[in-house]
Amino acid sequence: MATDTLSVTDNRTGAEYEIPIADGAIHATELRKIKAADGDFGLMSYDPAFLNTASCRSAVTFIDGDAGILRYRGYPIDQLAERSTYLETAFLILFGELPTKAELVEWADEITHHTFVHQNMKQLMEAFRYDAHPMGMFISSLAALSTFYPEAAEVDDPEVRLLEAKRLIAKVPTLAAWAYRHSRGLPYVYPDNDLSFTGNFLSMMFRMAEPRYAADPTLERALEVLFILHADHEQNCSASAMRSIGSSRVDPYSAMAGAAAALYGPLHGGANEAVLRMLAEIGDVKRVPEYVERVKAGDFRLMGFGHRVYKNYDPRAKIIKETADAVFEVTGRNPLLDVALELEKIALEDEYFVSRKLYPNVDFYSGLIYEALGLPTAMFPVMFAIPRTSGWLAQWLEGVVDPEQKIARPRQVYVGADERNYTAVDDRRAVAVA
Ligand code: CMC
Fold this sequence. Notes:
The chain has helices at residues 77-83, 86-95, 101-112, 119-126, 134-145, 158-184, 197-206, 217-229, 237-246, 252-264, 271-282, 288-296, 315-331, 336-349, 351-355, 363-372, 380-401, and strands at residues 5-9, 16-22, 25-26, 61-64, 69-72, 75-76. Strand 4 (61-64) and strand 5 (69-72) form a beta hairpin.
């Protein structure tokens, strides 16, 4: 009769072990029972970059990378993108259910009333150089926020956790918009509590002398869709950083500064910025084949293509492509769109990309929309971070109350020198420092 166990024979010793299988996984600590000799540490699994290691149980986001499926709390991403708002989706991601009408009104009201930041934050941002990267400003201001809310360190208090989650979701658009205004040398715009989440963000970004900024409804909705699509993506690099840092029981502002730093990298949230630079560098549809050849030769990667989990078209990329069409109706067509479409067409037919299952990911078209909205490329990762805040917080909230979790502390396979004696400085050989 089939049992939910894995039978292992250690050929070093001939010993046999039965390892329980639960939820399609074995517990890595079970391997520690497998020892070559008494006093042996026990077997470890070696998994650089966590290619096949689940680090937590999570009920937030489901992805089937082969089928191109993404769901938040069970709801398909396309339904949420079509019918929900970012704030409603954030509530769903954090608390597990869609809010009732009354809950949604209260939630939106609370978020709206936490959008202001301490005036000292303005001074902090003003201290950055005129050409500071807005993501560097954003990351720093998140860490700085922790100093305004020392009670946030009480991570075992559910009320504190909830309050800080609301504050963070509410304040990130303010920090993001101010980082942008700084880069443009423009005065910072304070939040307008009568506007929607995205409407207020666009106002803080683009308001000039007018008494009230009225965003184009198509662009406001497009931003809602982009925010919904970027809200969570299970155990990606930054979510994993958020959980890992949070496992030390630090406050969520500090943990989120670390998560945002992880997002900044060009292989993660910085990819949309890299896509736009790439499209601008290609410049013309005629140059696409030559560029693709250089990618295949290994000169560089095609940014916005490929994904650790999706081995199919990223479902978010499909929705973003449609959103881009709606945006371009208002803003006019981005000339780089033709380069992107040609690049996608050639890559999807090419054996190199087909055999490696490399498809456009979420970042391939999002940058074109951000550019059409008038944003400089340096703002793109910041635009990713605003909605991802709800995902980071949901992952963090799940982690801090999970009784199975402890402080994150991977093992290593030590490959360094054996014990040796200290040598006097005159007896040493020069080291090639890489
Ligand atoms: N262009 C060309 N070749 C690629 C690309 C690409 N974008 N991505 C992967 N490959 C090749 C890679 O060279 C390797 O080929 P080979 O087997 O011949 O060595 C093969 O495909 C597998 O690549 P990998 O590096 O093992 O794949 P990974 O799962 O570690 O990397 C990735 C995933 C997203 C880092 C990678 O696809 C990449 O660098 N893409 C470009 C950056 C990008 O668009 N990032 C945004 C990701 S989506 C948003 C987010 O989650 O932040």
